[in-house]
Amino acid sequence: MFGSGSLSLSALSSGPGLKKILKVLGQIPDLPDCLPMTENTLITASILMNKLYDDLRCDPKRDNYIKICEEYITGMFDPNNMQKDLHAIQTVSGILQGSFDLGNKLLGLQGVMEMMLALCGSESEIDQPSSMPLPS
């Protein structure tokens, strides 16, 4: 689809393009604020994230990619808004289905595991299945 070193690939894997893909990964179809999606949207976004991560050959670009993902995830945590936390954990889950290396790095971020455990204890049925990312 994209050639090696393509401008489109570079633009997609940094900044606003990457954040839009992360937003798609954080969608939960059972919630009313969910973006319009097909049944394949989440897995397609996971595969795209993995492809972008694999195509970043130099360490500074890969480090920037990881930093954007980390800031996106931790920026969503809000002790007063469980729905934002749920979207953050869903995003990590989506990344794990594509890029296992990146997903594991994100699981190691401060607060991620704690938030997953808090969602497991939630009384809401929507929170519970999304709290534990399991690669398919």
TrEMBL record:
Q: Which UniProt keywords apply?
A: Cytoplasm, Repeat
Residue ranges constituting the UNC-45/Cro1/She4 central domain according to the UniProt record: 32-125
Q: Which Gene3D superfamilies match?
A: Leucine-rich Repeat Variant
Chief location category: cytoplasm
**TM region(s), chain numbering:** none
One GO CC annotation: cytoplasm
The record, for Pfam families, names: UNC45-central
**Where found?**
Cytoplasm
Q: Which GO terms describe its molecular function?
A: Hsp90 protein binding
Q: What is this protein called?
A: Protein unc-45 homolog B-like
Q: Which gene encodes it?
A: LOC115482382
